[in-house]
Amino acid sequence: MVQWRDELKELVDRIPADDLPDALGELARHQAVLQQRLLTPPPAIAAADGKRKYNRTVENVMERFSVKRSWVYAHRVELGGKKLDGALRFCDADLERYENSRRY
Question: Which tops the pLDDT comparison, 59 or 41?
Fold first, then answer.
């Protein structure tokens, strides 16, 4: 389990019963903030000419996410993969977007 989850659980467990209605309101506010972060794309990483650089290979993605080759191919659309010269390539900005969307 991720450390922040343990910390959040401990905080929630310590909330006095009388404060639960206020705590639910705060949680709803934080949920809205997290949803907005998911919907707001990070700025694109681009080459000097303004075009996206698809210079990451399947092997790069496998290493970055500690996954198997079959997982990369199964998730190529979500990861923003493109076929270039017969090889599947990825852009850093798309990989970062995917990574950030899975953190929260």
Answer: 59
Amino acid letter for position 17? A
Q: What is the pTM of this model?
A: 0.52
**Contact (Cβ atoms closer than 8 angstroms) between residue 86 and residue 95:** no
Residues 6+ apart with CB under 8 A from 37: 100, 104
Which residues are CB-contacts of 2 (< 8 A; sequence separation ≥ 6)? Answer: none
Residues recorded for the chain: 104
Burial of 71 (0-12, 13-18, 19+ CB in 10 A): middle
- pLDDT at residue 2 above 90? no
Write out pLDDT tens, residues 62-95.
999 999 999 999 999 999 999 988 899 999 989 9
Cβ atoms 74, 68 nearer than 8 A: no
93 CB-near residues (< 8 Å, 6+ apart) = 42, 43, 44, 45, 46, 52, 80
